[in-house]
Design brief:
306 residues; alpha/beta; four-stranded parallel sheet; 15% strand
């Protein structure tokens, strides 16, 4: 058995996230209180009761990071630790914490700035995203046929997300049937994440990161941008990730090849768990987002099922 932690990205946020864990476990309460103090904004109100506020990029990113890392610390207090870590998009920042690349406060401050720079880029370059039910070859054919369209996420072998300007998204929806793509779903995102439309966020984020201490990971870390285990300096890839494709499916396949057979998702919802099952049905997946799912995982651990 080889356990990996995986962490969800922006879009997983939902009002009420973490509330029962916050009310039940001091370690979670302390972490989320600290997050709000660092941010200096009503983060807990957004997380627990204000969906409209939580959906803002400047709240969603710190909120998901704070909860994911709090759950990680809660599991560690129960003796459950990972042997490697990964995330989808924003979720990588919780993975950086899990592998010891930085402490919680540093991660929060990095995310606060990243969210701000990305929010500014979104306002300057309006765009959208669509999910396709099709393979990578079909997705690439559509990208080749529509100017200004880009592959943003390779989530599973049959789920590809494209991003681009609003005009290119509209054209892609029209052209998809001609390429044999049967289903196209417009996504309710703030913009075209992981595409060149986000480039305005890169230079200020790179400048901000320059003096930030980032340590060498203490255990295997797998990254979206390469789809592989990371070696070397993290900072360039943290910047590149803003405008480059999320190679989630290739990354998970690499982790499975490296022996990981249990994936525990530490985020609101179970989206990543479902994607991982689409990639490989043989591995075991669990998710922890509240007291009920925590108890279910602990029962599995105690019964030696994992």
């Amino acid at each position: 058995m080889k356990i990996a932690f995986v962490h969800a990205g922006q879009g997983a946020q939902v009002a009420g996230m973490g509330k029962d864990l916050y009310d039940t476990y001091d370690i979670v309460k302390s972490r989320l209180d600290e997050a709000e103090s660092i941010m200096g904004q009503p983060l807990l109100r957004a997380m627990f009761e204000d969906q409209a506020l939580l959906d803002k990029t400047t709240y969603a990113q710190p909120a998901i990071y704070a909860l994911s890392t709090a759950i990680r610390d809660l599991l560690a207090s129960r003796g459950i630790v990972s042997e490697g870590s990964a995330g989808l998009s924003l979720g990588e920042y919780a993975a950086f914490y899990d592998v010891g690349a930085y402490g919680f406060e540093t991660g929060m401050r990095v995310l606060i700035h990243r969210a701000f720079f990305m929010d500014q880029a979104l306002k300057a370059n309006e765009g959208g995203m669509i999910a396709l039910r099709g393979d990578i070859a079909q997705a690439q054919a559509l990208v080749d046929a529509v100017e200004g369209l880009h592959i943003a996420n390779i989530n599973s072998p049959q789920q590809i997300v494209l991003g681009g300007s609003r005009e290119s998204i509209a054209k892609a929806i029209e052209r998809a049937p001609d390429i044999g793509i049967r289903r196209v779903v417009p996504l309710a995102t703030a913009g075209a994440f992981h595409t060149p439309l986000m480039k305005d966020a890169c230079q200020p984020f790179q400048d901000y990161l320059r003096p930030v201490p980032i340590e060498k990971p203490s255990k295997p870390l797998y990254l979206n941008t390469t789809g592989k285990r990371h070696e070397g300096d993290l900072k360039p890839l943290m910047v590149r990730q803003i405008v480059e494709s999320v190679r989630f499916a290739p990354m998970i396949e690499t982790m499975i090849d490296d022996g990981f057979d249990v994936f525990i998702e530490l985020s609101p919802g179970d989206t990543l768990s479902k994607l991982i099952k689409k990639i490989n049905r043989e591995v075991r997946t669990f998710h922890v987002e509240d007291c009920e799912t925590l108890d279910a995982l602990m029962k599995e651990m105690e019964s030696h099922a994992i």
